[in-house]
Hints:
The protein is of the alpha/beta class and 254 residues long. 24% of the residues lie in helices and 26% in strands. The protein has one domain (2-246): 4-Layer Sandwich (Metallo-beta-lactamase, Chain A), CATH 3.60.15.
Amino acid sequence: MRIRVLGCNGSQLPDFNTTSFLLGKNILIDAGTVTSVLTLEEQLLIDYIFITHAHLDHVRDIMFLADNLCYQRTRPVIIYGTKGVITAIHKHLFNDIIWPDFTKIPSFKAPMIRFKAIRPGEKISVEGYSIRTIAVDHVVETVGYAIETANKAVIFFGDTGPTNKVWQVAKRTKSLKAIFIETSLPDGMKHIADISGHLTPRSLEAELQKLKGSKPNVYLYHIKPCYYETIRNEVAAIKDRKIQIIEDGQIIKI
Length: 254
């Protein structure tokens, strides 16, 4: 697997892009930052977008991507998400008020985007990958994605607070090589993290203990930039785990 970090909500200012990962050349996991990073030629290759939840920092560039691709290609971009997530994106973004409804442009029969609902727990096959949707605990309906090939697997958690189902899947995944997980706030702001459905370094450490003996590489993102150094220092104190804070533009090969 080749994963390109288009944006990770985790770089220090001013180099700060919202969350999006490019898997291979044509699959996006979230779409917070796409069009400001990829060339038009690279954008034209995008065929699938898997959305974790409807918060703007994870979906913003779907609007601009649809606009850029319209009339430039004939096949639609397929956007996967749970029913609630798709409903929110369609109702609040592609509503012909905030942005044109590209599910009917250029036409109903040949739109630029198509939404496809997937249920938590459902597994689908896309481009040689087996992709399982897993519910996580955030302040809005949110899922993570377990992505497997023949002998490798990674899990993207999306935004999450302390959660359980995804760890149960992780423990059963023998080929798990990496997890991409957030840590948004420092330990001193645990009360805010709990209210907003996010992790701190200490709660991250508690979550990683749910893996028991499994020790995949941990790629950390979604760090609030004003707390970057504090969180980096607190994460460094977590023992017996390979944790890397990722940066925008980074390429990770699994």
